[in-house]
Structure prediction request, 115 residues.
Amino acid sequence: QVQLVESGGGLVQPGGSLRLSCAASGRPFLTYAMDWFRQAPGKEREFVATITGTSGSTNYANSVKGRFTISRDNTKNTLYQQMNSLKPEDTAVYYCHTRIGRSYWGQGTQVTVSS
Prediction:
């Protein structure tokens, strides 16, 4: 079974930066796409970014383009997300995700952007 564990969330002021990590265990994800989603209070979970396991190509939600960067280190089975120029509307629980036959989700890490 695949397990995903996010870390790196916290409280940051508007304009600040955070780097999220998602460590995978149980099975390597070398050739599988990985994603970041987020869910703000009272809202549905929304797509943030994705990265393929083969070419490493990326796609982002329009709301985070130019500010967030998704990356992965397949030798460490770890997914990353660098988040810059953070805004209060980025406040949410951030989840990593992969699909290997079925979807796997981490437990989430809280990001709060507030002055």
Notes: The mean pLDDT is 94. DSSP finds no helices and eleven strands in the chain. The two ends are 40 Å apart (CA to CA). Residues 38 and 46 are 5 Å apart (CA to CA).
